[in-house]
Specification:
The complex is a heterotrimer of chains A (104), B (279) and C (157). Chain A is an all-beta fold and 104 residues long. In chain A, 0% of the residues lie in helices and 51% in strands. The chains are: A mainly beta (104), B mainly alpha (279), C alpha+beta (157). Strand 5 (71-77) of chain A pairs antiparallel with strand 7 (117-122) of chain C, so a sheet runs across the interface.
Chain lengths: 104, 279, 157
């Protein structure tokens, strides 16, 4: 299964600074195909669930106004080594994906 | 600041300046003279900063660059390039077997002049030569998903290496001079030469764009415009030619190879960095 | 095709209203992705649709919300923004780009387990204000910054 989420997590002084990128086109629906001239349909992530040790800590709602290969950075205070951050994304075409990182 | 890009006089003045003070016109003297021009155009900006092109004078632009480069959106292109680089040929060999040091810290030696074939060989050509020798299909120079992605990754193996173009034979010198000739040649409907913008006015503003100085350009390629549209150096030459209303030459053509040879020499002793964000 | 009998029709209409009623009653700042809010095309409607009826109730949060945006976006397709709310009990942050075809860009629902901070990259169609609304303790706070855009980011090649 192709990895769609890439993490860079840093834990220091009990705060986890989580940076991640989800590889997704985030197609606006305003672009035209160069060859056919047809509009390329919208295809974007609308919801991201962020869990720490299976507990929801952040919910993200995006739109086609979010950049391609969307980047997200957030902070989790009170994090410890061994905690797992899991990210699940859902898009408007019904696709989804996930990824997780264990804090060290 | 508005200036007469179309002025023949400004170009002549540059050429006069070049031939007056210098003893003999050698590539190294050319490079030093151009450095003097930029020192006058953008005083106080260290040469090491020229590699950042139009971000040299804007902290706002630099911060965006740093923010995006911290976690670049084109990571998927680099991953694709890495996969291609690491792929075994049918005969079991890999691309790294064709290069010294397994492809690490070598990109600064390209392009080079090949005495045997009397041609300039670019990094992309060397990759295709490797593929062909090993019975594999060569890549199209302007295919961003194959050659583009591959060089974005493979040139990265030489990040930090100082540009090191060698001109040590009459044949090499001839190619350098041919590249230089094209660089100063006015082309297209706008009748502009590379030199018009990037030498005479390198460091100046043209409308809201800062014209990057020639010295420092060749080291930071390929670029990802807007974070996603990949351009190799020769693809960028082609876009520039279109911008002045000229029909672009083919990537891998002798003229563009000679231009890249001349252009890369001018960035000698500046550090390479592959896969950079540009607006 | 036969018409529904009057009693069946009444039953049908009753359940239809019940369903529609549920949709109307659902709080505007529920945790589901709100397709209606995100499809609004005017900034005023976008802001209303996140649960604000009276704009005079929005509190000026410019001292309490740190919004970092570039002055001149290098490329409107990828504008880095950073938001940190200093307002206690921050529950939610909404981001708008005023001149986008659909101004509501994103929103973030914070539990107490994360800092009310987020950095992301957004598309801006043209020079406009980026507005940030913070919902904290039932009240809305606002700040905004103008971002100049020379290369638009929504439908370019």
């Amino acid at each position: 299964m192709e990895k769609t989420v890439r993490f860079r997590a840093r834990l220091s002084d009990g705060i986890a600074n989580i940076k991640l990128m989800i590889f997704h086109e985030m197609e606006t629906g305003y672009r035209k195909d160069k060859n056919s001239g047809e509009i390329i349909p919208q295809h974007f992530i609308h919801t991201v669930h962020v869990d720490k040790n299976n507990e929801r800590v952040l919910e993200v709602h995006w739109s086609r106004s979010v950049s391609k290969n969307p980047y997200l950075n957030f902070m989790v205070p009170g994090a410890q080594t061994g905690d797992t951050i899991t990210v699940t994304w859902f898009d408007n075409k019904g696709f989804s994906g996930d990824g997780s990182v264990e804090l060290k | 600041m508005i200036f007469p890009l179309h002025s023949r006089r400004s170009l002549l003045l540059i050429l006069l300046f070049m031939f007056s003070g210098a003893c003999v016109a050698t590539p190294e003297n050319d490079r030093k003279q151009y450095l003097d021009i930029f020192a006058r155009n953008i005083p106080g900006v260290p040469v090491s900063e020229y590699v950042h092109g139009s971000m040299m004078l804007s902290q706002d632009a630099r911060e965006q660059f740093n923010s995006i480069m911290d976690f670049p959106p084109f990571q998927d292109s680099l991953d694709r390039g890495k996969t291609i680089w690491n792929r075994s040929f049918s005969n079991g060999k890999k691309l790294e077997d064709c290069f010294e040091n397994q492809g690490e810290n070598i990109a600064g030696n390209y392009p080079y002049y090949d005495e045997a074939t009397e041609r300039v060989i670019t990094f992309e050509m060397a990759i295709n030569q490797c593929l062909e020798i090993n019975g594999e299909m060569p890549f199209n120079f302007t295919n961003v998903d194959t050659m583009g992605a591959l060089t974005a990754y493979a040139r990265g193996l030489s990040d930090g290496m100082l540009m090191n173009i060698q001109i040590t034979s009459p044949g090499a010198r001839e190619k350098y001079e041919k590249g230089k000739e094209f660089y100063f040649k006015r082309i297209g409907q706008y009748n502009l030469a590379c030199a018009s913008c990037h030498l005479t006015h390198g460091g100046y503003y043209f409308r809201d764009e800062l014209l990057s100085p020639t010295i420092g350009q060749a080291v930071h390629f390929p670029v990802f415009r807007g974070g996603e549209r990949l351009y190799t150096l020769q693809m960028r030459y082609q876009r520039c030619m279109e911008a002045v209303g000229a029909t672009p030459l083919e990537s891998g053509s002798e003229t563009l190879n000679n231009l890249e040879f001349f252009h890369s020499y001018l960035s000698n002793s500046l550090p390479l960095k592959s896969a950079v964000y540009r607006r | 095709m036969s018409l529904l009998q009057s009693t069946e029709r009444r039953e049908f209409l009753r359940s239809a209203f019940a369903i529609v009623g549920t949709l109307i009653v659902t709080p505007s700042h529920s945790s589901d992705w709100d397709q209606i809010a995100y499809n609004k095309t005017r900034i005023v409607d976008s802001i209303k649709s996140v649960g604000i009826d009276d704009f005079s109730n929005i509190i000026d949060g410019s001292d309490l919300i740190e919004l970092n945006t570039p002055e001149i976006a290098e490329n409107g397709a990828i504008v880095p923004i950073t938001i940190q709310s200093q307002i206690p009990q921050t529950e939610r942050i909404f981001v708008f780009s005023e001149k986008n075809p659909q101004p509501l860009v994103s929103d973030y629902v914070f539990s107490t387990k994360v800092t009310p901070y987020v950095a992301s990259r957004i598309k801006m169609a043209e020079t406009s204000y980026v507005h940030v609304l913070v919902l904290a303790d039932g009240k809305f706070y606002r700040t905004a910054k103008e971002v100049k855009v020379t290369i638009g980011g929504c439908g370019e090649e």
